[in-house]
Amino acid sequence: MVAIRRVLADALGHFDADDGWSMASHLAISALMALFPFLIFATALASFLGAKAFADTAVHLVFDTWPQQIAEPIAREVTNVLTIQRGDFLTFSIILAAIFASNGIEALRVSLNRAYRVTETRSFLFRRFQSFAFVFIATIGFLAISLLLVLAPLVASIARQHLEGIEPYMGTITFWRYMIASSVIVLGLVAVHFWLPAGKRRLTHIWPGIVFTLIAWIAGSSIFAAYLNQFSTYVSTYAGLASVMIAVIFLYIVSAIFILGGELNAAIRRYREARSRVGG
């Protein structure tokens, strides 16, 4: 209990001292500004490569793990934007979309550098190239998942014809889509904690914060969704802007939890190092 209190006090104290609440605002707005450009860039690339049905899959992968009250109005508008016919994949507008999307990656980097208490020493060009690489890899990953989900009904049909008794274990497309979206979140958290901040870390250094982030995200999302159902007056207060305000507040909660996950990892590592020095 003493160790837990010390770690939590260190994490929360550093979160407050480093303006974690302000950084959460910065990260939330950066995420919102990066979301549309990333999906536009990804859809344009997918269309360029021949994956015409990518938009619906991308929207599901991004929003399936959000509470329905928050995701539904935003996802509807995103779908409207992405289904507009565009033939400008290699034009200036798509390049700008990639730049805005990479800015969201840079916001994650700044937040984690502060959380892990490290100073950035890598060059601007390296950091920007890495951010573009994250955007491109995420896009290719979404594209691969999109193709898998398109092929899934065909594979399921063949399996049912040739393997008796497999029907109860097949699940539904919605189930697999949710599981894939959850897996993407976990892999994304591991990737950003490993490679975005300066310095080197092992899996043992980052897993506590990742587990905390996932559990806190589920709890925070559920509580916020319950609040929207029971007490929210956003619609009467903000009228047509209600969905945007709800998304911003939700992303703020998610961002604060994400930063706290990094702070928790740093606090645990500091506690272990202090214990080893005393033991030595």
Order of helices and strands: HHHHHHHHHHH
Structural class by secondary-structure content: mainly alpha
Mean pLDDT: 78
> Rg to the nearest angstrom?
21 Å
Q: Report the principal-axis shape.
A: globular
Bin the helical content.
over 70%
- Which stretches are low in confidence, meaning pLDDT under 50 for 5 or more residues running? none
* Biggest sheet descriptor: none
Using DSSP, what is the number of strands? 0
Q: What percentage of the residues does DSSP assign to strands (E)?
A: under 5%
Ends apart, CA distance between termini: 23 Å
Total of DSSP H or I helical runs spanning 4+ residues: 11
Provide an overview of this structure.
By secondary structure, the protein is mainly α. Helix content is 82%, strand content 0%.
Main features:
mainly alpha; 280 residues; 11 helices; globular
Helices and strands in order:
Elements: H1 2-17, H2 20-48, H3 54-63, H4 68-82, H5 92-115, H6 124-162, H7 167-170, H8 173-195, H9 203-230, H10 234-238, H11 242-279
Helix pairs in contact: 1-11, 2-3, 2-5, 2-6, 2-11, 3-4, 3-6, 4-11, 5-6, 5-11, 6-8, 8-9, 9-11
Care to give the gist of this entry?
This protein is about 80% helix and about 0% strand. With about 280 residues, the protein is an all-alpha fold.
